[in-house]
Design brief:
Layout (H helix, E strand, L loop, with lengths): L14 H11 L2 H5 L4 H4 L5 H13 L5 H12 L6 H7 L2 H5 L6 E2 L2 E2 H17 L3 H7 L10 H17 L8 H6 L10 H11 L24 H9 L10 H12 L10 H9 L24
Antiparallel strand pairs: 1-2
Helix pairs in contact: 4-12, 8-10, 9-10
Organism: Lujinxingia litoralis
GO molecular function: catalytic activity
GO biological process, one term: DNA repair
Length: 294
């Protein structure tokens, strides 16, 4: 039976309380094992974590079990100390690390492009964090979505320019999308959420200069449906404007940390709590049912 959305463009008055309840009901640490960020927490060094996070977020599409396997396969050639490995190997050696890697849109050559781009960044700026801040126009902190999107686009374009292959391949563009192109850039915004928020057991809080209030919602098909059910999204097109609309709606509840609800909302879908249709089995136990317009 197809789902329909009632005409309710405004959030329910009790939505904030229900979102707080959803967040508290979510077993974050247990769910982390079913989330790509779980792989990032397996590393202890901050420099390694941000590198692993960029690989993991870039591959965070498709079924969770399969994408986690793809992330593990992608990270294996970098060993226990990815930053050290990237500093030691030449571009030619990096290009040979993933000869048989294939995961949907992503091929081994795309991972080699990303590895080479990160390696050159480590040589020039010293870290991915430093590269991001280089695009922040000298600001001590990035506090608004506008400033963040400008810095994020600079970050992506710099990495793309430092790739291994002479041409900018479609698979590498997909792995590392540019916010200036107008798409939701869900996986890139997921990376920035991990870097900015926390540390709280999910997000890692490695980039304190990137304030949580500047973040943009990592919006995909599943979370956009949930946000429409809750009156957080009216835009029909799934694009950058939709992601900003949800971010601004959540900021009305917590301007300093609007994305604190993202992990719990996302895992309503990942954990099959929400199946995007009315169900006597699923809906009565859902923490946001009272505000849902489905």
């Amino acid at each position: 039976m197809p789902y329909t959305i009632k005409n309710n463009p405004s959030p329910a008055p009790n939505l904030q309380a229900l979102l707080e309840e959803t967040m508290h009901q979510c077993d974050h640490l247990a769910r982390r094992d079913h989330d790509p960020v779980g792989r990032v927490w397996e590393y202890t060094d901050a420099e390694d974590r941000e590198i692993v996070a960029l690989f993991a977020s870039g591959l965070a599409y498709g079924q969770v079990r399969v994408l986690r396997e793809a992330i593990s396969e992608a990270l294996a050639p970098l060993g226990d100390r990815p930053a050290h490995t990237l500093r030691q190997l030449s571009p030619e050696e990096l290009g040979a690390l993933w000869p048989a890697f294939t995961y949907r849109m992503t091929r081994g050559e795309d991972l080699a492009d990303l590895a080479c781009a990160i390696a050159r960044t480590l040589q020039r700026e010293g870290s991915l964090r430093a590269l991001y801040l280089a695009g922040a126009a000298g600001r001590r902190e990035v506090a608004t979505p506008t400033d963040h999107l400008e810095a994020a686009s600079h970050f992506v374009r710099a990495l793309r320019a430092r790739r291994m292959r002479p041409e900018l391949a479609r698979g590498f563009r997909y792995l590392l999308p540019d916010p200036a192109d107008g798409s939701t850039c869900k996986r890139l915004h997921l990376f920035f959420r991990w870097m900015s928020r926390g540390p709280d057991g999910i997000d890692l809080g490695l980039w304190p200069e990137l304030r949580p209030g500047a973040l943009v919602m990592p919006l995909d098909t599943h979370t956009s449906r949930l946000c429409r059910y809750l009156g957080l999204l009216t835009r029909k097109t799934l694009d950058a404007r939709a992601a900003l609309e949800v971010s601004q709606a959540l900021a009305r509840f917590d301007a300093k940390d609007p994305l604190k609800y993202d992990f719990a909302l996302c895992h309503l879908g990942i954990g099959r709590r929400c199946i995007h249709r009315r169900s006597e089995e699923h809906c009565p136990g859902c923490p946001i049912e009272a505000a849902c317009t489905l």
